[in-house]
Amino acid sequence: MPTLPWRDIDTVLLDMDGTLLDLHYDNHFWMEHLPQRYAELHGISRAMAELEMQPLFERNAGQLQWYCLDFWSSELRLPVRELKLETAHLIALRPDADTFLAAIKQAGKRVILITNAHRDSLSLKLERIELAPYFERLISSHDYGFPKESRQFWDALQADIGFDPGRSLFIDDTLPILRSAREFGVGHLLAVSVPDSRKGPKDTAEFAAVGDYQALIAGL
Fold first, then answer.
1. I need a surface site. Which of 30, 61, 147, 175 has the fewest CB within 10 A?
2. Which residues does the annotation mark as catalytic?
3. 1 occurs within a structural domain
4. Are 85 and 12 in contact (CB under 8 A)?
5. Taking the complete model, does pTM exceed 0.70, yes or no?
6. Residues 203 and 130 in one domain
7. Measured between alpha carbons, how far is 110 from 5 in angstroms, rounded to an integer?
């Protein structure tokens, strides 16, 4: 676990899925529940459903439409919003994420959520987990028209909130997004070691990783 130079950090930018919330909900929905419901609603086998869906997933990964429920509803001819409600009981905080949020807010840091999640996904999760009070802003990349993987997202964020990248901490569970933030000049970057509680630690490559939010607030 890294020790953060909190005196050099004014703004904390936080991802949502896999960072503050357990990624198990999203992984289960997209990899298990949605293919099963696609098979049932289109009258085909589960194996055929996966064969039809896989090229779509591969073609759109990392692009804004990858995160857009309207796009997937149209592509798959399914009511994706409604289907996400069927597994909403799996939405859960990562351990001590709320303790971390309370501590950094109490310390006077500027705390901003930046997520690639579609606004409908964001609303669904905020209905079940009370995250909003911890944040100055809740920003979806759909607000800007660019995913966090894109430099254009960071330019739009800078124009919107006017933060100092060098004095900012950003935590995310996706390596291409962390690399995009680094290229923009964000000074303090952390990956997430176990974004999905049902899976083991992931390789966070060149990035230090947070595994324990309690330990992260040491020295705050």
1. 61
2. 8
3. no
4. no
5. yes
6. yes
7. 15
